[in-house]
Amino acid sequence: MQSSYVLICDLVDFSKSNYDIFYDSLKGFNSKFPFVEESHKQNFYSILFLDSCDGEIEIDNYKIYFNCPKVVIIQPYCISKINLHPEATGKIISFTETFFSLRYNNNSLNDFSFFENGCKPFMSLNSFQKEHLQTFFELFDYEYNAILKDKTKVLRSYLNILLVQLERIYNPQIITKTHNSKNEKVKEFERLVEQHFKEHKMPSFYAEKLHVTPNYLNKICKSEASKTAGDIVRKRITIEAQRLLHYTNLSINEIAHDLGFENVSYFITFFKKQTFTTPEQFRKNASY
C-alpha cells in the first residue's frame, strides 16, 4: 500500500548497540525487521550476500530475484523493499559513510563502481566467487561478534577489503581510478547536487559554490564523467521523480512542487524530455 511519504530508516533501527556498523544473518530477517517489507529509504549503505533463498528485493526501478547467489547493494536514499523467505541463507553488512571515512577519506567510496548513482545494484556470483566471498564474511562475522582489542579498526579494514573484492567482480577491468583536481571537483559538484537539486537546477549555482566558471565546470564534467554539468543535475532530478511516482501516492502536482518546479506543466515537459514518457504513464507502467 502506497502512502504520501516514504519511511526513512536509520542504522539504530537495526542495531541498538552500534550506530555506525551492523552485521546479521538474513535468516528470519523480515521477521526481525518487518518494516523493510514496505517502501523505505535508509541513510546508510547495505551489502547483502544471498547464498540461497526465495524472495525479492526491489531497489528503485530494479526488481531482483534469486535464481543464483547474488550480492545486493543498497545505497543511501535509494527506495527499497526487502521480502525474503524466513529460511534465507546469507548475511548483511550495513555501515555509515562516517564509519568508513574515519580511516579512509571521504572520497574513497566513490572509487567503487557499484556506488555510482543509477548503477545496477546487484551482481550474480559463480561458485568460486561465492566461496571466496564467504571467507571474508566469516572473518567479519567472527570479529563483529567477539570482544577484542581494536575491534572497530579491524572491521573497517575487513570492510575495505570486501569492497575491493566486490569491485573486482562488478567491474573486472583492471583500471585504477586516478585522483586529480578535476576528478575531485566533479565529485564535490555531485555532492552539492545531492544536497541542492530540488532548489537549484542551473549549473551556474554549483559553479559559483565551487569557485569556478560554468564553462569550466561543464568542461571537467565532460572529461571526467562523460556528461555535461546540466546532464548530472537533470539525471538526479529524474531519479527522484521516478522514486516518488513509483513509491508514493503523491499527485503529479504535489511531486512537481516537492521537486521545486514552478508549475506542473513545466515538470511534465521536463520529465517527458528525460524519460520519453509522461509522469502518468511512467506511474502506470511501474505499477505492473
UniProtKB/TrEMBL annotation:
PROSITE patterns on file: HTH_ARAC_FAMILY_2
InterPro entries: Homeodomain-like_sf, HTH_AraC, Tscrpt_reg_AraC-type_HTH
The keyword Transcription is annotated on this UniProt entry: yes
One Pfam match: HTH_18
Key words of the record: DNA-binding, Transcription, Transcription regulation
Domain HTH araC/xylS-type: 187-285
Protein name, entry field: Helix-turn-helix domain-containing protein
Organism: Flavobacterium aureirubrum
High-level lineage: Bacteria, Pseudomonadati, Bacteroidota, Flavobacteriia, Flavobacteriales
